[in-house]
Write the structure tokens for this entry.
Amino acid sequence: MNKSDEETGGRVFINNVADVGVIIGYFVIVIGVGIWSMFRTNRGTVGGYFLAGRTMVWWPVGASLFASNIGSGHFVGLAGTGAASGIAVGGFEWNALFIVLLLGWLFVPVYLTAGVITMPQYLKKRFGGTRISLYLSVISLFLYIFTKISVDMFSGAVFIQQALGWNIYIAVIALLSITALYTVTGGLAALMYTDTVQTFVIIAGAFVLMGFSFYEVGGYSALLQKYGSALPSISSSPDFQRLNISTHCYSPREDAFHLLRHPMKGDLPWPGVVFGIAIIGGWYWCSDQVIVQRCLAARSLTHVKAGCILCGYLKLLPMFLMVFPGMISRVLYPDEVGCVVPQVCKRVCGTEVGCSNIAYPKLVVSVMPTGLRGLMLAVMLAALMSSLASIFNSSSTLFTMDIWTRIRPQARDRELMIVGRIWVLCIVAISICWIPVVQAAQSGQLFDYIQSVTSYLAPPIAAVFFLAIFVKRVNEPGAFWGLMGGLVMGLCRIAPEFYFGTGSCLVPSKCPTLICGVHYLHFAVLLFLCTGILVLLVSYCTPPLDDKHLHRLVFSLRYSKEERADLDREEEERGRNARREAEEKNKAACDEDTPGDGGKSGLARLIGWFCGLSGSQVSEPTEEEVVEASKVLPDINEDPDWKHFVNANALIMMAVAVYFWAFYA
Amino acid sequence: MANAVQVFYCLLLILGTVTAQAGKVERALPNWLTGIIAVAVFLFLVFVAFIVNKAWCKGSSQEEKVSVATNEHAMTNGSNTNLDSVRSHEHNSAYENVTFHKSEETVTVM
């Protein structure tokens, strides 16, 4: 660390006893909670590892929803975009307040009664066939790797580079190995309990930083006054022939303190902020594995709803904890954060297009006193590790439950557990390889990059889930061709944008206005509507699904008690038969060489114990047992008192949300 | 009263435009007031939705009950008189609560 200190000369890094002590303390607490929860739950079965045995109460659910949502990408991205263009980016967070209620009240009841673990599995039950679920698993994994994981890692690395001065690759690899370790060993229960701790750390640390930064700038009203005049001192290019920097590229926006901006001229136009973000949020919160898996782990529907409300209240905070500090950072360091001349930017942060990404890290290393800087590093690590770990866990759930069981239908619990853990390692490796691309492609504003890629690919998925749950008439061909049509439309937009580049204020992209002129949030709304229409058109032209296949799979039939003829039952039966055969074969093999079993090395057993893989395996259920089990219906009935209590709370939360939206409109 | 409030808002709006003309962009209403108004409107909408929902649900369930009752009546109105159809088998002066039982069952299924 001392060496890097000398190299970069004069910058303050975290290398004193107090800071290091705080970080070590943080790691001890997280690992302690992880180990404690490891002993509490059974990690050897699919339900135990991937769904925490469905025993979670509301506060770990809510905290875990928040922690897996808030990643280091938020600290860097929200603060950076806030510094660059004001509070409108907070709309991304505040829109989620309403979406999270949709999740708890409309979507999760259906997923619970459907009795599924993964989202592709739900679509398989709802529509039958395998192509839709295969497509959904593949595109979800793609989105995890190319947007969530790489962006989170990149922003975590930016922070570590700023605060510690380490090499970006070493930092990322170190972080990933820690995260992978506790994902691989722990399972969902350990994740959710550690997430709760992480949530505390994130909020506490971010509050401290917010306090210090507001103190530094002189209070809220001072921020309102000074933000408008935060201009960099060097704003003219060294050679005027090549580059002429216009004033609007480096002066703060006039509408910086408005959430709702002009529908044509604004950088985040209000129809996009209200409807576009709601659609992307609908995908993220209501149909994505990472979030839904946490809700499915809850003890009952009331706990899910209470968890959603808790998460909603917590989602009010990022505006104050991240966006405003980002803006303060620009006020305090206009030359660095608000730099505009490419050469200057290159010197400050290593990218030519702009340095708004360093807004938050810069604040941390500059205004925080010794000891608290370590706390902030712990906060970043908490955010990074919690969201990465949830993505790792969910992607391994997707991979094992939907892709691996297709390749090897005879795979049994033990094999699935092992495959799931190996997949985590693979995905870590893939995301490391992807870092240089992100580093090259990111245009200074990280948040926009994630959101634009997401808004070209996610709306069709949101549309299909929405229609699948609320419209009984939608059938397999409709959903499939809707998804395909949506994908083609999305790719038509992504391809030129990547070819021409997103451009920056100084060097606008050469992309023709006809293609790239539509704002990406408006494009999301259009894409959603087009996909929806396509789905309905194709569905009405093809024969409908019978009600007997849909009991407890659509919203209107969620309380139905009729027997359901599953559309995927043939495939499931084949899988069960294959597993039973495998078990027979295994047993025969075991009988032959029983004495050899004692020779299993101590190391192998230690690893097995550490990963929660117990030696004995439950035998496969027979056909009668399966039929019996299917008669036990999942229960979504709620105690009426508690039901009214959570409903009232949801109403209060919505009123609070409406107040804040209007306050900053 | 409503008029006075409207006049007040108009004044505030005019104030806003005047200050805007003076060269600086000002809000028509202070932030907190916009917030309060929005919450009031939101709660009002929720209230309306609640009332509509209540009225609609009540209406439909009552309708359902009526139809169940007529069904029951039609069914029992065969050759027997009303009382005979529910007379207990064990005791001549006791009656079984057939109608009530049936109607409840129908309601739960709905």
Summary: Chain A is about 70% helix and 0% strand. Chain A touches chain B through twelve residues (CB under 8 Å). Residues 17-114+148-259+294-450+549-566+640-664 of chain A form a domain with the Sodium/glucose cotransporter fold (CATH 1.20.1730.10). Residues 168-217 of chain A form the longest helix (50 residues).
